[in-house]
Amino acid sequence: NQDSFFKELITRWWDYYRVRPGTGKRVSSGGLKIQFHEVNSHWRGQENYRRSGVVDAMRVPKDAFFAHQVMWNGWVDIEKHGTYICGHWNYTDDIVKEVMVASTGEKVELFVNGESKGFGERTAGFLFTFHEIRWEPGTIEAVSYDADGHISSKNKKETAGQPDHITLKLMTAPDGFKADGSDLVLVEIEVVDQEGRRCPLANDMISFDLQGEAEWRGGIAHGGKEGNYILEKALPVECGVNRILIRSTTHPGNIRLTATAVDLSPATLSFHSTRVAEKHGLSTYIPGEHQPVNLSRGATPPGESFTVKRHAVDIIAATAGSNEADVAKSFDDNELSEWSNDGHLSTGWIKYELARDALVNEIELKLTGWRSRSYPIQIFVDGAKVFEGETPKSLGYISIPVTPTRGRFVGIKLIGQGKDKDAFSGIVEVEAATAGELDLLKDPATTRQKGQLRIVEAEIYEEIKN
To answer: Quick one: three-class SS letters along the chain?
Structure first.
């Protein structure tokens, strides 16, 4: 659903953002949203709604869209602070729920009708979670603070009243609607309360009447007589909103759209299409010449556009409980090679020698079976234990913060049997069967021995003192 999608996109982007330039030698230099809107792809099936994309098929933004606005806002580091509360604030008196907030701040405080509910649990960098928040009608507000405790951004949502009327919003090209037989306008339909606030629980069926020089192309929604309401003159809003498409004819003229629904005040939208220039029966109008250009972002900054946040300390050698000839494969920058022990718990350890003493505070690992296996491990720096726990499953590298400890030798020890269960089976784009040659699901049963530790890559980071 939209909540879990919101959480997953923030978590997955953090996997890359946390290793941006300035965070060591192995960094991610950028990112893009491949599947920006919903489409019937990757074998999702005909009714694919809410399963992909940060906007739906009609480009209506989802909560995940606003999460991306918060996170993707600078050359490398955060330049403009933002905060966004996931979901709506229309529930019933018996609801106690988890509230998630995307924010660029160092900490986030939540208020319900002005009363503080404390600070959120920070996970995945940009994600702050508030547990067991009881719903009350009124307002919910998230306030973000920087490292010095100053307010950096806010976001507020209100409880909407009962559905009252329909609103229509025309969306055209910058230079208007052209009567060339192919131009399209989007019309956004909202069900709102008396004060004009969108009603997030509304799923009213809206009937449309189109008059004038235009052709109905309609929209989509979940269900429908022939499937997804394609081309139908009546379709529902979902979460209080939907959009429809109208195509021009080859004749300029006035157009009138009326939207009606049971128990709601109707809405009417009047607009017109304009003639396009022709030469020898062909249009000379080129839409791209009229698209807006925004150069306010400016040129790429000269010099470094980031600050150094952590240093990777070189590994110069390693010893292990077994298979010592392969230890270098665990830090050789080759993600198609690995070190593993012989499957006995007693040999499930490896010790790295650093190029120098360092104040170690973080270990970066890529472990074989990253998407499906968690390893119970201990980490030591010069013999002092700095971490004990199970490694998280991921789609690649994991970061393990450790108690900052100065030393030159970093040891990783397996203390129990790894647990196997695919954590990402619902993510079709990174299907387990194609997750990589070192994925556990491609290995024979002999690799699932009780005491097996398998490391594809390891990096050691030191704390930077300002």
So the answer is: CHHHHHHHHHHHHHHHHCCCCCCCCCCCCCCCCCCCECCCCCCCCCCCCCCCCCECCCCCECHHHHHHHHHCCCCCCCCCCCEEECCCCCCCCCCEEEEEEEECCCEEEEEECCEEEEECEEECCCEEEEEEEECCCCEEEEEEECCCCCEEEEEEEECCCCCCEEEEEEECECCECECCCCCEEEEEEEEECCCCCECCCCCCEEEEEEEECEEEEECCCCCCCCCCCCCCCEEECECCEEEEEEEECCCCEEEEEEEEECCEEEEEEEEEEECCCEECCEECCCHHHHCCCCCCCCCCCCCCCCCCCCEEECEEEEEECCCHHHHHHHCCCCCCCCEECCCCHHHCEEEEEEEEEEEEEEEEEEECCCCCEECEEEEEECCEEEEEEECCCCCCCEEEEEEEEEEEEEEEEECCCCEECCCCCCCHHHCHHHCCCCCHHHCCHHHCCCCCCEEEEEEEEECCCC
Report, as an integer, the average pLDDT of 8-26: 90
* Range of 116-120, 307-311, 340-344, 396-400 with top mean pLDDT: 116-120
pLDDT tens digit string along 193-218?
999 999 999 999 999 999 999 999 99
Sign of CA dihedral 296, 297, 300, 303: positive
Q: Residue 42 above 80 pLDDT?
A: no
Spatial distance between the Cα atoms of 67 and 70, rounded to a whole number of angstroms = 5
Please, are residues 198 and 240 in contact by the beta-carbon 8 Å criterion? Answer: yes
Report residue 46's pLDDT band, with 50, 70 and 90 as the boundaries.
low
The answer to whether 362 touches 464, Cβ cutoff 8 Å, is no
For β-strands 311-313 and 151-158, DSSP reports them as unpaired
Sign of the dihedral defined by the CA atoms of residues 357, 360, 366, 372, in that order: positive
Q: How far is Cα of residue 179 from the mean position of the Cα atoms in its chain?
A: 39
The number of C-alpha atoms within 13 Å of 324 and in the hemisphere containing its C-beta is 7
pTM to 2 decimal places = 0.87
Q: What is the pLDDT of residue 425?
A: 56
When pLDDT is averaged across residues 28-50 and rounded to a whole number, the result is 70
78-118 confidence digits (pLDDT tens): 989 999 999 999 999 999 999 999 999 999 999 999 999 99
**What backbone torsions phi and psi does residue 70 show, to the nearest 5 degrees?**
-65, -45
